[in-house]
Amino acid sequence: MKKNKKSFLKKWKWSIVIVVALGLSAWGIVSQRPKQNADLTVADKVEKPTKHASKNILNVNATVIRHGALTDEMMVTGILLPDEEVDLSFETSGQVVGIYFQEGTQVTKGQLLAKVNDRKLQADLNRLKAQLKLANDRVERQGALLQHDAVSQEAYDQVKTELATLNAEIDIVNAQIELTELRAPFDGVIGLRQISLGTYASPTTIVSKLTRIVPLKVEFSVPERYVNEVNPGTSLTFTVDGNLKDFPAKVYAKESAIDINTHTLTVRALYANPNGRLTPGRYASIKLKKQEITDALAIPAEAIIPEMGKDKVFVYRSGKAQPVEITVGLRTEEKVQVLRGLSVGDTLITSGTLQLRTGLPVVLDHIDE
């Protein structure tokens, strides 16, 4: 009995210890919770104003307005043409007995390029030349006799006519001999030959092609609305595939009427083509200046905000965005001329334009001077 009582008292003591320990733990948790909540509340009070303030400030880019050149350009596609080009052929028929040019080389005007057989014509020429001496002698004799009234005027006129006829026949034969010779009509580069020695050539037989490539013609077409803006003397530049360099040219002529099918006008310009660096037949990307203003007040097109039929922009003043209504002039793909509303030295905001509001605080990340 005593043993059981002792065991009961021991269990009771341990139960009290456990209850006290649990009570102390619970009190510690409760006492710590308000402190944690107080810390979070303070943190919230610190963070919220910062986050709210950042939403009211916008980081933007800007540019300082300056006078500069503004060029309205138009891009069209054209083709390079030779200054002169001709298919060479004989003016008479005959067997080719001589070819005197090297393919792909420069030739000069009047240079003999090829020849067909002219032996019969040469024989006729020699015969006529032999008769020429006798005819001249007759005229001299008849003239001397006429001075002494030994012959009539009619007889003298007859021998003079025979001499003139003989000279005319010689001129005809010489002209026929010239037709057997193929000569360069102008300076240029001769192409590949299409005949060989011994070929029977006729006026339809193409011997080769002669091309003058200095200067070159640049041919292109412009829409009808730009017809009056492109005239002789208008400057342009063009590029060709495989070459990033801009080549200058100048308009020298345009077609007399607009094409009724395409509603475009054909225009030609001249490029000096020094040393024959460019070859005819190449396509050209042409940049044509329609209008140029040397001292324009131009701004980036993306800075303009259309609103109720008017154009406005935002400028940076005292750390805030301020709207300004503008009047625009010449427009290009990237720039717009400002006629009224802005002045040199104004700081124009060029980014975030859709988020800007009157008086909104802004921070300039980058300024183009």
Secondary structure layout:
Layout: H1 2-55, E1 58-64, E2 67-88, E3 94-99, E4 106-107, E5 112-116, H2 119-147, H3 153-179, E6 181-183, E7 188-190, E8 200-201, E9 208-223, E10 235-240, E11 243-254, E12 264-271, E13 283-300, E14 305-307, E15 310-317, E16 320-331, E17 335-340, E18 347-349, E19 362-368
Parallel strand pairs: 1-19
Antiparallel strand pairs: 1-18, 2-9, 2-13, 3-5, 3-8, 4-7, 5-6, 7-9, 9-12, 10-11, 10-13, 11-12, 13-17, 14-15, 15-16, 16-17
SSE order, one letter for each helix or strand:
HEEEEEHHEEEEEEEEEEEEEE
CATH homologous superfamily label of the largest domain? Efflux pump adaptor protein, beta barrel domain
DSSP summary, beta strand count = 19
In one word, what is the shape? elongated
If helices are DSSP runs of H or I spanning 4 or more residues, what is the number of helices?
3
CATH class placement of the largest domain: Mainly Beta
Kindly provide the radius of gyration, computed on alpha-carbon positions and rounded to a whole number of angstroms: 49 Å
| Annotated CATH topology of the largest domain | Elongation Factor Tu (Ef-tu), domain 3
Task: Assign the structural class, choosing from mainly alpha, mainly beta, alpha/beta, alpha+beta, or little secondary structure.
Answer: alpha+beta
The total number of structural domains is 5
**Quick one: biggest sheet?**
6 strands, antiparallel, barrel
Question: Residue ranges: pLDDT <50 for 5 or more in a row?
Answer: 34-54
Mean pLDDT: 85
The helicity comes to 25-40%
